[in-house]
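Entry 14. Ran structure prediction on the chain below.
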Amino acid sequence: MYPKSGGGQSNYIIVSDVHLGADLVQHVRPWTVSRLKQVARVDRDLAAMLDYYRAHADPERPWKLVIAGDLVDFIGMNIAPLPGSPLETELSGEERLYGLGSTGGHAAAKMRAVAARHSMVFERLAAFVADGHELVLIRGNHDVDFHWESAQDAFVQALVDRANGAADDAAQRAELVARIHFHPWFFYEEGLLYVEHGHQFDAMCSYHNLLAPVSPRDHRRISWSFSDILLRMVVRPTRGLRSEGHDYTTALEYVKLGVSLGIGGGARLFYRYASAILRACGRWWAHMGDRAQALRALHERRVEELAMRMRIGVDKLRAISALWPAPVTRGLLAVFRSMFLDRIFVAIGVPLLLAALLLVVPTGMWLAIAASMLAIGGVFFLWSARRRLMDLDPTEAMRRGARRIAQLLPSRLVVMGHTHRPEVVRVSDESTYVNLGTWAVDDLDGEVPEAQRMHLVVRWVGDRFRAEFYRWDTVLGPVLEPLLAPVLPPRGT
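Output, structure tokens:
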């Protein structure tokens, strides 16, 4: 599961944020059925890219395709169980409303649905691995369900079923399976390459216990992040909100959206919004007790086991995890701030308090108190807005993290995804941080943005490597990004 570094025996293709399955939302967005054809281009482009690099492989150094998280969008899916398909875990009330949840059985059912919906991609992935290349999947926040072996098994089975003869030939199947690797945190090639998704640097999307991401109250289910809760309960079911809708929607815009949806639609939006607040507060409370401490201890044991398997000092992994901001659901005030409740409380509470004071305080003193309270309220508004922006944008935290990671685990390239914004930043004389952007088209309600479809290619030439950043073009194939490529070390040891 955690193979020893290859010492330059592989060439690398690295992509992130494909979000297969983000189009399977009709349980809560039935109006998007007519838009499903728009995601087919992602499948065609990804399949074409895999075919291209199969045809341009070095026979001495096979490819290692590293997917830096969010290949499958388990959390963004809203599907009901297939009729007649039994589930080992009964649906909760929340799951009846919003679709299959996060148990191992539910995740496996979602995985099978994704493989059926995006069969072209899985056929090409199967052919890629069958050719002798390797596939490395790093968990992201949208495919945290790969925590479950049942989800991993369903993914592997989807490839086996599509690889010619592998399903019926035990030896061929074993060879295929041996070239598929799941990593719960990061992939590391000593001295050259460190890859992780990057969501742990994002307070909105991070998990309390990355290597034990289950609920303290129900170990059968994932303890979803704050962003997961909002996406599932507010954004996906609401017409007019895109996948990152809450991040870029103000309290006033929520009010305008509710009005535009009419009385019934506005009431449903208010119910979902209030339910998400309660669910987030429940996450905070669940991580306060003894069972939460036991999960934290389990996470720490798994960090130690990971360090031992990868032959990395556990102190280095702990130093990396110390860089992560606290999840929003770690603090009740952070939840309120992210849902605008603190500002709503001030906006309503200050006028009411001033009105009450007007009845009992002399006019001269009341004016001084009013001015002071308005000034304090204004400062609080600015502080709260700034803190929310810091929670929303992890870009700088990821850059700082990349700089420190390169020191702790020597790497010429530190690679992440998650933000959906590609960038290349030199973080030291010897190390470069690369963000891979996104391949996803998961906004089926309104204007569909164009994804960058970036990928990083690292090839060995003798004992040196060449790293190049490409954009996949439907017509031209891989197009070198001239503004980004010069920042990367063109050759290095």
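Residues 1-7 have pLDDT under 50 and may be disordered. Will compare against last week's run tomorrow.
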